[in-house]
Amino acid sequence: MCGIVGYIGNKEAYPVLINGLKRLEYRGYDSAGIAIINGDTRIYKCKGKVSDLETFVKNKDVSGSIGMGHTRWATHGEPNNVNAHPHKSQYGHFVVIHNGIIENYSRLKTKLEKRGYTFKSQTDTEILANLIEYIYLKGKVSGEIAVRLALTKVIGTYGLIVSCKEEQNQLIAARNGSPLVVGIGKKEYYIASDATPIVEYTNSVIYLNDNDVAIIKKDELTIKTIHNDKQIPKIQTLDLDIGEIEKGGFDHFMLKEIFEQPKAILDTFRGRMSANKTDIYLGGLYNVLPKLVEAKRIIIIGCGTSWHAGLVGEYLIEEYAKIPVEVEYASEFRYRKPIIYKDDIIIAISQSGETADTLAAIKLAQESGAIVLGICNVVGSSIPRLTDAGVYTHAGPEIGVASTKAFTSQVTILTMMAMLLGKKRNVLSQEEYKNLIAELTKTPDKIALILKHCENIKNIAAKYKDATNFLYLGRGYFFPVALEGALKLKEISYIHAEGYPAAEMKHGPIALIDEKMPVVVIATKDKSYEKIVSNIQEIKARKGVVIAVVTEGDTVIKNLADHVIEIPDSDQALAPLLTVVPLQLLSYYIAVMRGCNVDQPRNLAKSVTVE
Ligand code: M6R
Question: Which end of the chain has the smaller Cβ count within 10 Å, N or C?
Fold first, then answer.
């Protein structure tokens, strides 16, 4: 979603802002803008990409060592030049960039209109800029006080940077529900909505907390709450390498991230297994482990791909640990009246750690007294800070909007959790536990093998790139994989796709099948192999095209299906980690062949920080 970058120091702000905005492109956006503060405040903004903004500012004055930049993902008002940020207040005293949503904007707007304010844009941000200005002029207070007072009147979420015309030596940043991180340089500070624009300059950072307001001068940083209580900043060291947020020779971040999966899974194991690989340690769960082992019920919440990982988790935990599991879309859970018991364990899964629906669902669960655990990728993000305990996936930054390595590393953590709980609850014998760990450690090499044979998948993609619909089928552990395969295709190639449990096909989707319908079937050798073979026959009998993901050496399905993609043999419960990889590649190649913007698909944002 929207991205924020700010700079105050001794160097030229423009290159920092424009590079920062490029780093933030992955979040998803539809317009971009900057403000340079240097005597007067110059605002340049336009609909489109950061490269359009660069063209727009060519030959314009961008000199100055204080500034802010923004990429906007439209919420209030269509994407256009006027609605793009920054926004200036009516009398020009304040300039604001803002992520999030001001929920009571309509009431605030009416009040300001009664006091003579008019609005150029349709954004909630312009209302905020004017509210700050109104308080500033009426109360004759400092810019900082005006910002803080205005924020006490706001209902909603924000991450913002404000500059006041009369106090040009400082930027004011504030956060509530929309992340902001401050990077500390030598007599300079960087501000951003995530660490990616900062990492090339410094690895010393402070993550703002909700209700924090940072008053930032080039050689001084003060953090208070909106109610003026001084806060002691907690300086942290970023564990992020610049190389990790670059394409490293790949055409797209998504492809790089698909190919990074063997390493991402290894990094997820790292330090979490005994040297002889016979035991699992999940340090982040240490304090809650006794309660987890005794849990009567686990509820997993998440959105999109993280929800799919949760479904795999349900199968794993119920099989290995015999604890009942429910998996819920966070966006549904938070708005219905779920029954949550004090002794329930909630597991929130999120790559970004910032998804608004998941955060709200966590808060709801916490109100009921349940323990909430997080499985997140982005270190220091909101979910790990909010939850009682948790585990980081350590997949490294995921820049492509379509989640790939985040999924496999989430499933890796869930697999490890299920095994550990199974052992502690005596569902798994020591021997079974040991064998499963050994099997899991072979996964990275098996994925590497699948990746080696990507040409076959590319050829299949070339054949079906113009299809208008796809069906994905799987049974048991592979039903969530089918859902994930369909989601990947939809989001990056804009082809309609549906994931279905293979046995459900006869209850409806079979009506869709004809010679134009490619059906991707996950059909590895496991206990429902015979049944899936029958499903393939049913599809072929109706002239459907079958692309089957099979266990290497399979000859039966090879004779039935139009195309097969082989994967190495594996325990069924661990095979989601393998079977998903060809589906990721298939979507990737199809999207590239259709000329789609794979890393920044239309309308999508990397982390969905609004409801
Ligand atoms: O950051 P999160 O894991 O909480 O994000 C959840 C979804 O928004 C995300 O998985 C989304 O569905 C991806 N674009 C899927 O590829």
Answer: C
CATH architecture type of domain 3-243: 4-Layer Sandwich (3.60)
Ligand 1 pocket residue status of 157, Cβ below 6 Å: no
d(C-alpha 457, C-alpha 454), whole Å: 5
pLDDT of residue 26: 86
Q: Which atom of ligand 1 is nearest to the CA of 355?
A: 4
Q: Whose CA is nearest to atom 4 of ligand 1?
A: 350
The Cα–Cα gap between 564 and 393 comes to: 31
Domains 3-243 and 453-603 alike in fold = no
CA atoms 67, 70, 75, 76: torsion sign: positive
Q: What are the domain boundaries of the chain?
A: 3-243, 247-444, 453-603
pLDDT value for 277: 86
How many Cα atoms occupy the beta-carbon half-sphere of 270 within 13 Å? 13
Q: Which CATH architecture has domain 247-444?
A: 3-Layer(aba) Sandwich (3.40)
Ligand 1 atom nearest 304 alpha carbon:
12
Give catalytic residue positions.
2, 606
pLDDT tens, position by position, 315-356: 999 999 999 999 999 999 999 989 999 999 999 999 999 999
Domain covering 453-603 assigned CATH 2.30.38.10 in the classification: no
Supply the angle between the helices 405-424 and 576-593 in degrees, to the nearest 10: 170
Which parts of the chain have pLDDT scores under 50? none
CA of 306 relative to ligand 1 center, distance in Å? 6
605 alpha carbon to ligand 1 midpoint, in Å? 9
User: What is this structure's pTM?
Assistant: 0.86
Decide whether any atom of ligand 1 lies within 6 Å of the 609 Cβ: no
**488-537 confidence digits (pLDDT tens):** 999 999 999 999 999 999 899 899 999 999 999 999 999 899 999 999 99
